[in-house]
Amino acid sequence: MTPPLRGIVLAGGRSSRLGGRHKPAIRVDGVPIVARAIAALREAGAEPLVVGEARSVPGGVPVVREDPPFAGPLAAVAAGLGALTPAPDGVILLLGGDMPFVTAATLARLAALAAVAAGGAAYAEGGDGRAQPLCAAWDEAVLRARLATIGDPANLPLRVLHETLDPARVHVPARELLDVDTPDDLREASRAPSACNMPPDRLE
After folding, report:
1. d(C-alpha 59, C-alpha 204), whole Å
2. Is the Cβ–Cβ distance between 9 and 73 less than 8 Å?
3. Please, what CATH class does the domain formed by 5-189 belong to?
């Protein structure tokens, strides 16, 4: 039997560097970024859940909120995991809701590696060698145990998840890890050719 594969999309945050504009709802090639992320997860075989705002989230996808709101990405991960029925043999994909070009192939590679990695986690990395914790996969039991050890996740940096761990890494094109944080990022995303082969009406 195939282990359960679920995806948590982080779609909260204040988007302060974009003047408060809700980043996941921004359209790239006519499709909201959060919808593109959900489509990639589904194509990889993962059941998606969104933590944050429901704006532009396709119908039928559950949405929960971190407590308190805007308590940071670690709190969002904890809220998402808390909303899922535990599956001790499962794998969890973590994906930023402001990353329009992550592919299903990358997500599938991360999930497969996390299931067998010694530390129970696999992170994507681009050409600069930096790991991206919001394009990552975790053995679900390992992720739940680490969150339990951390305790209250509010306002803690996401790096505490892996401070004592060396996650396995999957090298991906830098374009896949583009996150839309600033107006310059948005201009770059708008110029980039789409990585998504699905038509917009399949994504919303």
Report:
1. 8
2. no
3. alpha beta
